[in-house]
Amino acid sequence: LAAWSPSLIILAFGTNEGFDDALNGGAYADLLRGQIARLRGAAPAADLLILGAPDALRNGATNGCSADGKRIPPPSLALVRDVQRRVAEETGVAYWDWHGRMGGDCSADRLATMSEPHMRGDRVHFTNVGADWIGGVLADDLLGAYAAWKAGRG
Fold first, then answer.
1. CA-wise closest residue to 66 among 20, 100, 119, 107
2. What's this model's pTM, rounded to 2 decimal places?
3. Contact, 14 vs 81, CB < 8 A?
4. Which SS3 state, helix, strand or coil, does residue 59 take?
5. Mean pLDDT value of segment 115-121
6. Hey, CA dihedral for 136, 81, 17, 1, is it positive or negative?
7. What's the gap between Cα 103 and its chain centre?
8. What three-state secondary structure class fits 4?
9. For residue 35, which of 4, 18, 13 has the smallest C-alpha distance?
10. Distance CA 154, CA 151 (A)
11. Which pLDDT tens digit goes with each residue over 90-109?
């Protein structure tokens, strides 16, 4: 990282941890703080951005939120996002609400059942079209935030 001298490092993880029903929020927060400290040590001039875990669904539910009623968000996924948001605030790291920007709870089902699906049938992984779409949303949000920040300095 030191050789690259990045201006911005984006952290995007947490979905897999969200599928762990026994996830310890305190241990996850410690892990995240440790990664932030490691990256700040390796690239002290870089700003950091955490992409909050996106919406994802698990099979095997009854009365789930998916159109077929068989899928629900894994319960630890909300914990992951809460920890990510809290740790970002504590450590002065920017946070982007991926879950909210894709439509909130159960948006993975809507995105998977579009005429041109943006998520795969597993309701966890994006299709190429969906990756392009959410990447465009992130880019627009970053550029908009930068423009607002720049305008506020003038």
1. 107
2. 0.92
3. yes
4. strand
5. 97
6. positive
7. 12
8. coil
9. 13
10. 5
11. 999 999 999 999 999 999 99
